Every structure is written in structure tokens, then in C-alpha cells.
Amino acid sequence: MLEHRIADACEISRMLTRISTQIIERNKGIGNLVLVGIVRRGDVLARRLATELEGLEEGKVQVGAIDITLYRDDLKLAAEMPMVQASSIPFDIDGKIVILVDDVLYTGRTVRAALTEILDFGRPEMIQLAVLVDRIHRELPIGADFVGKKVPAAKDEIVDVYLEECDGREGIFIKKREEKGDEK
Predict the structure, then answer these.
(1) Full 3-state SS string of the chain
(2) Which of 77, 114, 133, 178 is within CB 3.0–4.6 Å of 182 for a Cys-Cys bond?
(3) Which residues form the Phosphoribosyltransferase domain (predicted)?
């Protein structure tokens, strides 16, 4: 299947720097922030954002990760038993500004599941959403506060984010969704 690159490693780095600056401006620093990434690529991006934030401001930003698998509303539709990873938020989120981080925002269902799980950990002052790619289309009324790139991909297209830590390569790609019966 042919994929078209819409961002390379340098562009992803610039997006994360821009998002970090916007987070600092909106929240008047990093003093009350914590980052929570959605497993798998969201938690990698959250760690990268923490490094960026700490490079721009004095202080340390705590980073956690959540696996929303068991909170998904489509879990019963899965053909196989999903592989669940442990969520890890080893700090108190009560009264904190939680920046929820994910790679791609599409329908809003993943974010809805993540919000539900975060609230099981405590009561933050506020939850903001940072995504690398916003696909625009929604099934739920959820929007990102911080966006690296808006990509109005068609419903028959897939937007893939590859990160060196997970995939051994870096970039954002778009490709046509395979039709049933197409060979891989």
C-alpha cells in the first residue's frame, strides 16, 4: 500500500516545540502541570514534551501513561482478546492541570475513554488535550487544546504516526484504507 509522508522527524520536533510553547503560555508556566500519555505513542510524545517543557522553563514535569483498552466502548467488537498494558500515574493528579497526550485525534472515542480512566485516578483542576495530528472528523464533541498539525484526511484514509522509540522510524504518513478483499 502506498503511503505519502506528510511530516518528517524535523517537522515532528518543531511541532512538539510549538505545542510546548503553547502549553507554557496558556498555563503560565509548568508549575502545576503533569503529562499523561495514552499508550503507546501518546506516552512517548508525553515524555518528549516533558523534555521540551523542562528545557524552556525551570522545573520538572511528571509524566504518566494510561492504557485505555479496557475503557473503550468498542471492546466487545474486538475479534481477539486485546493486549492490555498497565497504566502508570505514580503521582497525585488532584488539583493539577493534566495534559493528556496522544498521537492522532480522530473520532474522539479514544480521548473519551482516556478521560474516564484519568478521573479514576483523581480530580484534576483541568484536563487539556495535546495531539500531534488532528484529523478533524469527530463522532464525539471533543477537541484538542494543542495541535501539531491538522490533517483533513478522508474517512477512507489512514493517518499513521511512526516514532523512533516504537517503530524504528519517524514520520507522519497518510494512506488509503484497504478494501476488504485487497491483498496486503
Answers:
(1) CCEEEEECHHHHHHHHHHHHHHHHHHHCCCCCEEEEEECCHHHHHHHHHHHHHHHHCCCCCEEEEECCHHHCCCHHHCCCCCCCCCCECCCCCCCCEEEEEEEEECCCHHHHHHHHHHHHHCCCCEEEEEEEEECCCCCCCCCCCEEEEECCCCCCEEEEEECHHHHCCCEEEEEECCCCCCCC
(2) 178
(3) 11-158
Every domain of the chain and the residues it spans: 10-74+85-153
pLDDT in tens, 43-100: 999 999 999 999 999 999 999 999 998 775 655 555 465 566 679 999 999 999 999 9
Confidence of residue 16 (pLDDT cuts 50, 70, 90): very high
